[in-house]
Amino acid sequence: MPASTAPQVPPQNVQTDDIQTETPDPATPARTRGADTRALTQVLFGRLKGLEPGTPEHHRVRTALIEANLPLVRYAAARFRSRNEPMEDVVQVGTIGLINAIDRFDPERGVQFPTFAMPTVVGEIKRYFRDNVRTVHVPRRLHELWVQVTGATEDLTTAHGRSPTTAEIAERLKISEDEVLACIEAGRSYHATSLEAAQEGDGLPGLLDRLGYEDPALAGVEHRDLVRHLLVQLPEREQRILLLRYYNNLTQSQISAELGVSQMHVSRLLARSFARLRSANRIEA
User: Is pLDDT of 160 > 60?
Assistant: First the structure.
């Protein structure tokens, strides 16, 4: 994240008059450290409630609360470690969520502060990735060059009254045209294109329209799987009769001739098979 856009948070080593917010000893068991933090947080909120917002004492206690609960922010930020963003930036964004949670928290509701604050911290981090982070990771050098290309494009547009050509941008920055084109392509990673957007220049429909169609038989997959599962529970002869009747579309007379039994017997076997299937289906459900 560029320095100019990094969210600003209070310093992490603020000294207060009589509030101890030192980082717990790493050798202390995690459960003990968590209990100490919760106890300190409860005391600080009790003190904050009786202070007038905007006063120096209110600021000191509020800052102490932020300090005491920064481990919560680091824990939440660690969930986004795979996003290829500097962890210190993610922690800063999460700290903004922590501050918002502190300002809105009401101890009298009987909810532990970490339980209340975590959704706010995680939500702030998710908004940051949604609104500010590139959808595709771009190498740092290409990102820095893209900033220069953007600036040169704006300057040349103002000077000429039209959009500059790739050659004009390349000449202005003393780089090759291929590098300019690569930067323009990299700049598109800042914005995700809608699947419904038409493709530029080729007159083709949007990507969504070119995806595979929905198979109308898809809805019956679950039913077919259930029938297959129930069929294997029938005797082999009854399985064969059902297949001949409903897969090969044979009549009861044709089945009786195929198996060498009477049509009445085929009818009784079919009725018995249906009864077993219904009973097994009720048990499965």
Answer: yes
d(CA 146, CA 124): 27
| 9 and 106 part of one domain | yes
> 39-72, pLDDT tens digit by residue?
888 888 888 888 888 899 999 999 999 999 999 9
Average pLDDT, rounded, for the chain:
76
Q: Are 152 and 172 in contact (CB under 8 A)?
A: yes
pLDDT above 50 (res 155): yes
Q: Are residues 91 and 7 in the same domain?
A: yes
- Between CA 120 and CA 116 the distance in angstroms is 8
Residue 76 structure tokens: 């939440």
Number of domains in the chain: 3
d(CA 120, CA 98): 7
Give the pLDDT of residue 16. 42
Residue 15, classified by CB atoms within 10 Å of its CB into exposed (0-12), middle (13-18) or buried (19+), is: exposed
Give me 143's structure tokens.
């990102």
| CA distances to 14, 82, 225, 226, 273 from 247, in Å | 79, 52, 15, 16, 15
CB atoms within 10 A of CB 170: 19
Give the Cα separation of 23 and 232 in Å (integer).
65
Q: 167 and 279 in one domain?
A: no
**Segment of 29-43, 138-152, 253-267 carrying the highest mean pLDDT:** 253-267
Distance CA 176, CA 169 (A): 9
